[in-house]
UniProtKB/TrEMBL annotation:
Keywords: ATP-binding, NAD, Nucleotide-binding, Nucleotidyltransferase, Pyridine nucleotide biosynthesis, Transferase. This is Probable nicotinate-nucleotide adenylyltransferase. Coiled coil: none annotated. One of its GO terms (biological process) is NAD+ biosynthetic process. It comes from Sulfurimonas autotrophica.
Amino acid sequence: MKTVALYGGSFDPPHLGHEAVVKALEELDFIEDFIDKIIIVPTFLNPFKEGFIAPAQLRLQWLQEIFAKHKKVSVSDFEVTKKRKVPAIETVEALREDYEKIYFVIGADNLASLKKWYRYEELQKLVTFIVATREGVTVPSDYIKLDVNVNISSSALRKEMDRTKLPQCCAEQIMKYYKEHNAKQN
């Protein structure tokens, strides 16, 4: 049975917390034996947000660079190439042809809005959710809990860039982009 862990998000910007989630997935006992692939899917535009700072193609490029050396990881352009908001269920339905079992990875910060996701009840029947922990957020027992001890948020980073919280391979590019963008906004 072919299985996949699908990890979607805005990744605006990608940071060490995202990298830690993928590393934790790779280290889970059941991942090694049962998960064939981890697919990272950056959104073109998060369905719950009105915009983004870094364009989708740039976020996609950064993620490809960050995860290039991870054997089980691929970065998908599925949602980026659609150039619109793509509900999670649409991405999952596209993967159902290739995978019999789909794990859907979310950050604990997404739990509050999860039941508002488009066709949530159907999505819940198609996937098993894995929730990456975040300080101050309780993960209910009906989800698989992924312990990630990195407390970084993209929204906080957008306000105040910190090189030490960015993946080493493209930290300079990310810093430069967000500093220039923030300077234009002020």
